[in-house]
Amino acid sequence: MKVTQMSTYRSLSYQIEKSNQQRYELYEQATTGKRVNRSSDDPAAVGPILSTTEEIQKLDRYMETTDATQNDLDIVDGHLDQVSSLLIRAKEIAISGSNSSNSAEDMQTLAKEVGQLKKQLLDIANAKVEGNYLFQDTPTKQHHLVVTLSFITARTTTSRSKSAPVRPFRQI
Fold first, then answer.
1. Which of 81, 58, 154 is nearest to 50 (CA)?
2. DSSP character for 35?
3. Which of 9, 85, 86, 168 is the least buried, fewest Cβ under 10 Å from its Cβ?
4. Which parts of the chain fold into alpha helices (H)?
5. Cross-strand partners of 162
6. Are 133 and 144 within 8 A, CB to CB?
């Protein structure tokens, strides 16, 4: 078999083109830092790569949800700390009010302070974060808890409301 100059030229051209293609692929891998840039680079590796990418996206969403939930819990924790402080003060007032040596004026002062504590507790119970009431299970534009003269009313999602009587402060 006789080798002609034309067949040698074709063979060398093919080898040069192949080398240039490999050099380009290696350059692309080096610049992107990825071994597989297109599915044609390594068809067997595409499935695990896509699966891993989906898992990473799921984990990113999970982390965002976790961060948002942690922020919400921090806000709720701060409000509940305030409630705890107010209830401790209410207990102190109750103990002070049970003292039989208090005058009518002292009892009025204690009653006013209890009224202020009640208002603060209702403000906390109706606290809003990003336009939503913090301690309410369904979104609404109305306060969840309201105070009338002698009742605390919890508004529900139905047309009915639940009420509980507020007993007046009595000296024992």
1. 58
2. S
3. 168
4. 5-32, 43-97, 104-125
5. 154
6. yes
Residue written as token pair 């139905």: 158
* pLDDT (tens digit per residue) in 95-131: 888 877 888 888 889 989 998 999 999 889 888 887 7
| Nearest-angstrom CA–CA distance, 108 and 6 | 114
The structure tokens 């590796």 sit at 45
Tens of pLDDT, residues 9-49: 889 899 999 999 889 888 887 888 887 777 777 777 778 87
Q: Per the structure block, which two tokens stand in for 32?
A: 């992107």
Cα 108 to Cα 115: distance, rounded to the nearest angstrom: 10
Residue entry with tokens 């080398």: 19
Q: How far apart are CA 27 and CA 25, in angstroms?
A: 5
Among residues 126, 147, 148, 121, which one has the least CA distance to residue 136?
126
Amino acid letter at 55?
E
- Separation CA 146–CA 73 (nearest Å): 24
